[in-house]
Every structure is written in structure tokens, then in C-alpha cells.
Amino acid sequence: MSFTIEDALVFTKELYKIKLVAGKNGIKNQISWVHLLEDTTIINQFWGNEMAVTTGFGFRDSEQLLNLIKLLNEHKSAGLIINIGKYIEEIPDDVKNFCEVNNFPLLTIPWEIYLADLIKDFCIRTFTSQKEDQKIIRILTGILKNKLVKDATLTDLASMFDFGEPFFLFHVKFPYMEHVDFMERHKIRFQIQSILDKEPFTNILFPYESTYILIINGLNYKSMNAFRQEMTHFIEKFIPLQKYYIGCSDCFYDFKHIINAYEHAKAATQMAINKEINYIDFIQMGMESIWYSFPDKSLLKHLYYEYLAPLINYDKAHNSNYETTLFFYLKYNGSIQAIAKELFTHRNTIQYRMNKIKELLDCNLEDAKDRFNYQLAFYIKDSFPSE
Q1: Cα dist from 98 to 105, 172, 216, 305, whole Å
Q2: Residues 314 and 199 in one domain
Q3: Contacts by 23-27, CB closer than 8 A, 24 or more apart
Q4: Is 106 exposed, middle or buried (0-12, 13-18, 19+ CB in 10 A)?
Q5: Same domain? 245 vs 371
Q6: Does 174 share its domain with 287?
Q7: How many CA atoms lie within 13 A of 251 on its CB side?
């Protein structure tokens, strides 16, 4: 939906006689706004995805022009349009080569084209496309808030997504986000968006409840790992000195499952926070997903105590470690030798403890269902956030 350099080439090429000189692999870059540059002062204030336009007055030699493009590329500018003819007659080869290598779009327009018309036109197109994006974002925000996907809503989203392709939802949290204003949140969004624009799949990123939600459409499992590495590398490089945590949902095809995907990704993010890990997939969480996804944690704690209370109470009263012994009994599938080695305890002592544990639990631990219940109790215990 966003206005991109590719759109500019398609819809305004004849009007402004725009020519792509180098950086063709970056033409999908989204244009967030357009700035006229005759020096580099304002570039340090770029958020990301700004389109730069220049007459070349302040960048007449090859070195000055190359330094300008390097600075724009560093600040994640969408690209550069040069009003060619008066101050710059042709683009040097070293400038073209840099743009090609870095996928930085470099375009030219003839001197007779009035820059003010182009800038006004592009800004209007950018503003209009951003309004369309905001419409989609409002729809998606409403879905997450109301936990409801209507058929009419799917119709509204059909222009954005291909419902025949897989979806993933990312829940991205910067802890300091709760303390920054609206403008800073959108600045970060534009910075992250600059890398998303280069991806071949459909995506939309938007702030939601002091986090960012990223929905991607058309990315398969095989490509997921490469994308994750690229995204985390970008965040660490361009948003430094800030902690971040990302949770990713499982793949889903039916868009009506987006609410579950959001809850799963949110649970993965919470686990990442508790374990101080930058990124976790929901499918990697194993049994701990129960703890992080369950809304009422007190019920899970009650389940843990319900199963293990006889051992917990006995250990407190007798300063014993029967609960620990049961944990390793389940872990080593009943191997007395393995438990004895783990606990540095004689086999006969372990055997005595196990007989006592079975008596306290009123269970012989031979039934698979009973073992699962106690294993689940230990999973819940291990998932208690540290206090």
C-alpha cells in the first residue's frame, strides 16, 4: 500500500522523465517523505525511508556526491533523485558502483523538470498511501483489541494480503517504549520498516500497546531463520543500547487465527523477557507455552501444588528432598542408578525414597497418565517467573 520508488517509476516516469541510474534492487523502498537537499545538515534528523532530492549545487564533484550518498545510505534513506544538467552533468562510475553494491536507488530527472512540482506530487502520494496504511492498521488494531475477525473485515484486508499464502505474527517489545512519546515510536517504526521494504513478502508493522506488531504474509519456514537473523542484526546495529525481545507465532493460513497467533507471539515475548533471550518462537517453548499462554497463572500454580503437595509438605516437615528425587525419577525414566549418580546418593537410599514417595502420593508411578501429570506439574514449577 505504501508509495515506493517502484511506484514512482511506474506512475510518474513519463511526467517527470525519471530515470533509474543504479540500485535497482532497492526500488521497493517505501518513501516516507521527500526532502530537498543542498547540504548534509538535515540528514542527521532523518527517521528512515526519506527520499532525497537535489540540484547538485552542493555536491558538484564526485567525492562530494559519493559522501552524500554514503550518508544517506547510512541513515536508511529511500533513495536520491538528482536534477541533472546544470551542476551535475553525469553520474560518476564510482557513485553508480556504490549504489549498485548497496542497493541504494539513484535516479535522475532532466534540468527542465521543476523540482517543486515533483516534491509536491511525491509528498501528496506519500501522504495518501500512508492514510491507506493507517486504515489497514486501524482494522488490525481493532481485531486484536476486540478479539474478533468478521467476514467483512477480511474483504477490507484482501487488498493487502494474499490469504492463500502463510502468515506469521511477530510481537516486538522494547522495554523503554512505555516511556517514549508518539513521535519516537513512529521514528523507530520507520527505521525497522527500512529493512522490511527490501523483503519480497508482504508485511505491515505497527505500534500496539507499547509494542510493535509485525505481520508477514508469504514467508515460508525455510526463509524464516534468515529473515529473523537479518531483522535482529538490523535492530542491534541501528537501534543500539536498547534491549529488545521478539516473540514469533507459529505459521497460520486462516487469517481468523490471527488472534491466537498474537497471544502465542506475546507469550513467546514474555518468555524471552524472563529468560533474557532476544528471540523465541512459540513452537520452541514446549510445555512452558502452557504457563506463558494461560491467562490465570493462579490456576496453574494450584495444579502444581495439587499434585506435589504431599512431597512439598513432607520435605518442609522433615528437611528432606523427596520432590527433587521425584523430578529426577521422571527425568531419567525411573533409572535408580541415574538418579543416584545425579544426587550423589547410594542406590539403596534412592530406592527407599522412591518407595516412600509412592506411599505419600498413593501412586506407583507406573501409569503413563500419572507420570504425565507429575511431569506437567514440574514444567509448571520451572515456568514460575523468578522473584
Answers
A1: 10, 32, 30, 64
A2: no
A3: 23/79, 23/99, 23/100, 23/102, 23/103, 23/104, 23/105, 23/106, 24/100, 24/105, 25/103, 25/198, 26/79, 26/103, 26/104, 26/105, 26/198, 27/105
A4: buried
A5: no
A6: yes
A7: 13
Last residue of a domain, one of 293, 317, 339: 293
User: In the block, which residue shows the cell 513432607?
Assistant: 314
Name the domain count of the chain. Answer: 3
- Cα 203 from Cα 186, distance rounded (Å): 16
Q: Do residues 6 and 23 make contact, with C-beta atoms less than 8 angstroms apart?
A: no
In a domain, 141, yes or no: no
Residue 305 belongs to domain spanning? 297-382
pLDDT mean over 45-67: 92
To which H or E segment does residue 108 belong? strand 106-110
Per DSSP, what are the bridge partners of residue 54?
A: 82
Q: Nearest-5° angle of CA 382, CA 383, CA 387?
A: 95
| Residue 350: inside a domain | yes
Give tens-digit pLDDT for 100-155.
999 999 999 999 999 999 999 999 999 888 888 889 999 999 999 999 998 888 99
The model's confidence at residue 384, banded by pLDDT at 50, 70 and 90, is low
CATH number at residue 71: 3.40.1390.20
**Same structural domain, 280 and 339:** no
The predicted model gives 269-292 an average pLDDT of 85
Give the model's confidence band at 222: pLDDT under 50 very low, under 70 low, under 90 confident, else very high: confident
* φ/ψ of residue 254, rounded to 5: -80, 115
**How many residues are recorded in the chain?**
387
Q: Is residue 203 included in any domain, yes or no?
A: yes
User: Is residue 352 located within the same domain as residue 264?
Assistant: no
Q: Domain check: are 153 and 264 in the same one?
A: yes
